[in-house]
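Dear H.,

Thanks for agreeing to be a second pair of eyes. The structure we're designing against is below in token form, covering all 375 positions.
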């Protein structure tokens, strides 16, 4: 019992992170993580919390008062979005065209909701007209939910028409923006989105561990009018909002260092400017797609609706998925994402998010692929 156990020093290799997340992290964010910790109820920390909320409103393009980061990855934002507004027996319509739409169905079902699915082939968007027609048939639906950037397929779902239809009604519009936030246009208020959540490890380029979320006044009213408590104590926004609001009521110990990192990551985004950031993701994403097509590779997602920050590409015949990814990782220091579900072994998901979104990274991958093909 008294023996000392020694472990080797932690020295993870440097990688170009071109998978579906996490993305590479700016040195300023790393530096923020090393900032000395203060208490999560310290008055100076409260000022930092206010800074974060204000910057998140800017990035979400909203004036929603309840705009905060939840302690947990993007999946915690998904769970919070459902458990805080749904009760057993509520009806929900969910668009499903990939893994994360399926996950929404799972979470809503666990809340006891009756789920009406709108299914579409993977890689394709869900026609907004289909959504609107379904909602017209079911005016009693409490929530319509869809993924903006389906990370499993690389397809970008149009939201404006759906939001316009739902504005002024009782149905809540819930949007998964885990991959899209700060990487492409997302206008929460203008598009009538009531609940929108994301994750820090994608286009925000902050390590995984926080899930920014924003709720409209309509969503907050539903949150406060529920007859039953949220299914999750930890994710109960009726309590968490008291910590992030003027009351500063203790709920759980906030991940202080991660919040320091998020604050700095948001400052970097504001310094670049949203429009410039969107343009960078679109330009570099298009450059990568063109390079892949020049090599004879085919893109997976529906033309005209392809994500700028995540490219899904069909593997050519004869290329061994696992072996090629292993060589990319160990010989070239580049990580790409494996296909999920029915696309596993058939598709790569290539991320150009936030700090990773640079032309030299796209060039490095294209050169590495050329080498793999020659060999």
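And this is the sequence the design step returned. I haven't edited it by hand at all.
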């Amino acid at each position: 019992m008294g023996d000392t156990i020694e472990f080797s020093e932690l020295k993870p290799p440097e990688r170009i992170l071109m998978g579906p997340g996490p993305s590479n992290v700016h040195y300023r964010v790393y530096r923020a993580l090393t900032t000395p910790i203060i208490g999560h109820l310290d008055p100076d920390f409260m000022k930092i919390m206010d800074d974060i909320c204000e910057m998140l409103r800017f990035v979400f393009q909203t004036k929603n008062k309840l705009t905060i980061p939840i302690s947990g990855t993007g999946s915690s934002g998904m769970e919070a979005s459902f458990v805080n507004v749904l009760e057993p027996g509520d009806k929900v319509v969910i668009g499903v065209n990939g893994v994360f739409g399926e996950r929404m169905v799972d979470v809503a079902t666990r809340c006891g909701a009756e789920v009406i699915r709108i299914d579409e082939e993977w890689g394709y968007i869900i026609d907004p007209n289909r959504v609107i027609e379904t909602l017209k048939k079911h005016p009693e639906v409490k929530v319509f939910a869809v993924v903006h950037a389906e990370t499993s397929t690389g397809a970008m779902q149009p939201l404006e028409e759906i939001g316009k239809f739902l504005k002024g009604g009782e149905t809540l519009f819930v949007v998964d923006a885990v991959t899209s936030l700060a990487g492409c246009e997302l206008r929460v208020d203008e598009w009538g989105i009531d609940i929108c959540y994301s994750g820090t490890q994608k286009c925000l380029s902050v390590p995984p561990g926080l899930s920014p979320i924003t709720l409209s006044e309509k969503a907050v009213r539903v949150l406060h009018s529920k007859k039953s408590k949220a299914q999750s104590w930890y994710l109960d926004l009726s309590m968490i909002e008291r910590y992030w609001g003027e009351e500063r009521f203790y709920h759980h110990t906030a991940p202080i260092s991660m919040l320091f990192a998020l604050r700095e990551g948001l400052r970097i985004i504001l310094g670049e400017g949203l429009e410039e950031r969107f343009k960078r993701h679109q330009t570099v994403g298009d450059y990568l797609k063109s390079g892949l097509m020049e090599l004879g590779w085919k893109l997976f997602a529906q033309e005209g609706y392809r994500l700028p920050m995540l490219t899904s590409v069909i593997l050519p015949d004869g290329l061994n998925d696992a072996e090629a990814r292993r060589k990319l990782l160990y010989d070239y220091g580049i990580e790409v994402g494996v296909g999920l579900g029915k696309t596993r072994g058939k598709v790569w998901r290539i991320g150009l998010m936030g700090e990773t979104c640079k032309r030299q990274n796209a060039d490095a991958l294209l050169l590495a692929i050329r080498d793999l093909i020659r060999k």
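Two observations from my side: The chain is about 40% helix and 15% strand. The chain has two domains: 16-21+274-374, 27-270.

Warmly,
E.
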